[in-house]
Amino acid sequence: MLGGVTERDSEGAHGDRTASGPLDLSLLRTFLAVHRSGSFTAAARLLSLSQPTVTAQIRALERRLERELFERQPRGVTPTRFADGLAARVAEPIDTLAAVAESGPGARTVPRPVHLAGPAEFLCVSALPALARLVEEGVRLQVTTGLTDELLDGLRAGHHDLVVSTVRPRGRTLAAVPLADEEFVLVTSPDRARRIDRGALATDGPAALHGVPMVMYADDLPIARRYWRHVFGRRLTGEASVTVPDLRGVLAVVVAGAGFSVLPRYLCRAELDAGRLVTLLEPEDPPINTAYLVRRPGVPENPHVSLVGDRLLAAAQRW
After folding, report:
1. Which residues of the chain have pLDDT under 50?
2. pLDDT attached to residue 9
3. CB within 8 A of 261, min separation 6: which ones?
4. Do the Cβ atoms of 293 and 162 come closer than 8 Å?
5. Residue 63: domain span
6. pLDDT for 164-216, tens place per residue?
7. Phi/psi at 183 (5° precision)
């Protein structure tokens, strides 16, 4: 029995009969890991088990409950409605037991490093400086940068503890809270700005930028295309003269006078304040993107994960 959960309790609204006796705690723990991670492979990594062991335990639990818990998909699994209800009932007691086990006799005295992942620019400019004091207090960090989809897959698979995501993840396997809003601004160097009719840009649209080189993050111009749709109400055409897969590089090239770009305001705030960059437009409704702090549901085994998450959320109030 776990928190009063027996097989008979887990029969659900349809009243299916199951074998008598309490459910095995290890089966429930494995079930919860699969439910949260969305795959047998990811759950195996989280539990330090082999994938065949996880598969066997889930099948054993399904036989005991006489219920299918997961629908197998080409990538991972999807929980059934019954599985969602079971997870809601067992999550809190299992997490509580895990926290007790982690802090009990023989537990590690030094918490493991916190694996933090996210966009390189945001981590380096905003997130990591906010965590400096925690590092002084003994928190260890291992940082990974990359694209959001890949990082979220890594979070599901147990490779990361926290991910700063540029999109809200879908599904129940990850828990996300808004972290910060980033405003996008159209910028160039002061010398370039003097050669652009900014009045015409405001009244007639982006034709005033014809012939001015574009400095962008990627060939498909994702940030600039969004700005064009939101501010000008039209599609961006043309190709970038310079492509740099790091917004800090884009910033450096634009400051040096190579052309114009669209950048998050947080990234170029110092250059704007110092006059090394100027905004070409100040729309009343600028495009905004929300960054999310994402983690796997449940109480983390490493208490420093919560410390890092709380510090980032507190710091975001000042960004």
Report:
1. 1-18
2. 43
3. 186, 187, 188, 214, 215, 216, 224, 250, 251, 253, 254
4. yes
5. 9-103
6. 999 999 876 788 999 999 999 999 999 999 999 999 999 989 999 999 999 99
7. -95, 135
2 within a domain of the structure (yes/no): no
**Could you tell me if 196 and 278 lie in one domain?**
yes
What DSSP letter does each residue of the chain carry, written as one string?
-BTTBBTTGGGTTTT----SSBPPHHHHHHHHHHHHHSSHHHHHHHHT--HHHHHHHHHHHHHHHTS--EEE-SSSEEE-HHHHHHHHHHHHHHHHHHHHHHHSTT--SSPPPEEEEE-HHHIIIIIHHHTHHHHHTT--EEEEE--HHHHHHHHHTTS-SEEEESSPPPSSSSEEEEEEEEEEEEEE-HHHHHTS-HHHHHHH-GGGGTTSPBEESSTT-HHHHHHIIIIISS---S--SEE-SSHHHHHHHHHTTS-EEEEEHHHHHHHHHHTSSEES---SS--EEEEEEEE-SS--SSHHHHHHHHHHHHHHTT-
What lies within 8 Å, CB to CB, of 16 at 6+ separation is 65, 66, 67
- In the chain, the amino acid numbered 230 is H
Rounded Cα–Cα distance for residues 32 and 162 (Å)? 19
Q: Do 191 and 279 belong together in one domain?
A: yes
pLDDT at position 7 is 43
Please give the tally of structural domains in the chain.
3
